[in-house]
Amino acid sequence: MAINTNYMESKNLINISKLYKDNVPNNIMLNSILQDKVFNLLSNKVSHSIFSSKFDPYKYRYSMASCKELDSFFYGVYFESLVKNILNIKKYSIVYNVRKFESGNFTLLHDSENSSDGIDFIMDLSRTLERNGGFINYIDSKGELLHIVSKPNSLSFINRSKGSLCYVKYVNHKQIDPIILVFGTIKS
Amino acid sequence: MLKEWINQDYLLDSYIHKINRLYSNAKPFQHFVFLDFFNESKLKELKKAVLKEKFERIDKDLFSFSQTKELFTSDNKIIRNFYKFLSSKEFIAFIQKITSVKLDSKIDMHSHIFSDTDYLLFHDDVVESRGVAYVINLSEDFSHDDGGRLQLYDINDAFSPSKEIIPEFNSFVLFTVSKNSLHSIEEVKSNKKRITVSGWFHGY
Asked: Considering the entire predicted model, what is its pTM?
C-alpha cells in the first residue's frame, strides 16, 4: 500500500520523531499519510464494509467492521518503518479495529477499558472533513491530556501513560457523513 | 403551603392514592409525570429568577450543557423561597406519599440549560443517598422534533427508550433512583433552550 513518499525519507522521519518526543504527552499526527489515490480507494472500500452495531449504554455506541485491505498496511513494511523510525520500537505486535461513528454515537471513559501504558494509533478513513463531535480526548486523574481532532487520511500516534483513558465525544445531529476511525495499540 | 404552590387537584387523597399506584407500577421503572403541577405565575417568576443566575458551560464524555451552582446558595429571594418550599416537611411528605420512598429533608437543586446539540447520555443517578429524582420543566413550546426529551430505558433492552417525556412547561417528573433507573436526555436538535430545575430528594 503506497504511503506518502514524504514519510519514507529518513531526514523527515528524524524530524517527526523529534516532534513526537517533544510533545507532552508524546504524540504526533501525520497528515496525508497515504497517497491520495490509495486513500480514496481504501476509504471507499472501508465505508462500504459491513458494519455491526456495538452498544453498551455505559460504555459505547458505534459500529465496527473488519477490512482485510488494512492488514496489508498495518502489517506491512511502511507502517513498520514509521514505528521503528518515529517511535524507536524495533519489536512489536499490534491490534486494531475499524469503528464508524454516526450521529448519536460515542464512547465513554470507563475504568475497565485498557488503562495500561502503550502506544495508541488512530487512522482516520472518513470521507468528510466535517466534525460535529467525534473528536478524541485523552484524560487522566488530573484532567485533559490531549484533544485530537483527526483529519481524513491522517495517522496519529499517542504514547498513553498508565492510568490515562480516552473517549470519543458524542457525535451530534449536525454530522451528516460518518466519521470512520481505525483504533489500534502497539505493544512492544 | 402546598395549596399556595401546587395545583390543588393533586392534593386530593383519592388522587394521591391513584398516582401512588400508577407510580409504583410504571414501566420501565417507577416514575410519574405531573402536568400543570405548580402555580403557573409562581413558576414563571421562578424561571425569570433562575435565568438571572450564572450558568457554567460543562463538556464531558457523558454530557454537554450549562449548569448553575447549587441553587441553595442563591441570593435571589424567589429561588430561596422555592428551595424552602421544595425542602419543606409538607412537600417532602407529599413526595413520600407518591413514591413510597422514605426521605429526609435533604434536597439538591440545580438549573440546567440544554442548547442545540447538548445532551446527557445514559446513567442511573445512583450516588450515595439519592432517593427520588425530580425535574421541573421551564421550557415553553418544546415539541417532539426539538429533541430534549427525558428518555427512560429498560436496563435489559436499552437500545431504544421505553418512554420519552417531552419537556412541557410546568411538568414535574419524579422517578425513584435505583440501578434500574437508566435514563438520558436526548440531544436538543433546534435553537430552543431546554431549561429545567432538577435534583434529588435524599433518602435514608
From this structure: 0.95
